[in-house]
Specification:
Largest sheet: 4 strands, mixed
Strand content: 25-35%
Distance between the termini: 58 Å
Low-confidence stretches: 113-133
Radius of gyration: 24 Å
Mean pLDDT: 76
Shape: elongated
Number of strands: 11
Oligomer: single chain
């Protein structure tokens, strides 16, 4: 993938050029069709626009398509992070549309999967409607206004990489899974920019601490 970096009213240091190339190296993972990325960095000298003095525009060119993202901040690194986040979201949406266009099954998000489960009103025509089994009251208190919606999904044990892929497919910001190596319940989640996080639950340690107490 070809990468070009251009500075307008500013000289782009080699160190920042390498940082941009490192960030853009993840673009083919989201869309292998992207063959070129053009990055334009603009510096606004007006002191009244100090909070948006650095502007970055990223244009990804693929066959028959162009994906753009831009952002402004008080420093180039912050502007780049924001622009890359927006670019990643647009590349994911573009890739999902391409899959649906080819006749593949559209991935179902957690929101869409649970939206069909309607919360019944507390009263209908003066009669109380009982909650279904998958929707419970907090602490079993029927007078509590807080509802807990439960959902169970089937999944084989997997690694972090596969869990991240599954999270992208469902279009959510987190994904619950069981680690194939440790057997621990884990959650991967999306952080700011291109970073991700993993939370692991050490069930054995929790049980041991409870028994010792």
């Amino acid at each position: 993938m070809e990468i070009t970096v251009t500075g307008r009213h500013v000289t782009v240091p080699d160190r920042f050029r390498r940082h941009i190339e490192e960030k853009l190296s993840k673009v083919p993972q989201l869309d292998p069709r992207v063959s070129r990325c053009d990055v334009v960095i603009t510096h606004e000298a007006n002191p009244r626009q100090a909070k948006e003095a650095e502007r970055i525009e990223i244009t990804c060119r693929a066959k028959r398509s162009v994906i753009r993202a831009e952002a402004s901040a008080d420093d180039v690194y912050g502007a780049l992070d924001i622009a890359m986040t927006r670019l990643g979201e647009r590349l994911r949406r573009k890739n999902d549309k391409r899959r649906v266009h080819r006749g593949r099954k559209q991935p179902t998000s957690v929101h869409d999967a649970t939206s069909a489960i309607a919360l019944p009103s507390a009263e209908q025509d003066g009669d109380e409607t009982p909650l279904p089994a998958h929707i419970a009251k907090v602490g079993g208190d029927e007078d509590c206004p807080i509802h807990i919606r439960e959902k169970v999904h089937s999944s084989p044990p997997m690694g972090v990489d596969q869990a991240l892929n599954e999270m992208e497919l469902v279009g959510h910001d987190f994904y619950l899974y069981q680690d194939a190596e440790t057997g621990r319940p884990c959650v991967v989640y999306r952080r700011r920019g291109w970073s991700y996080g993993v939370i692991q639950l050490d069930v054995v340690a929790e049980q041991a601490a409870a028994s010792s107490a």
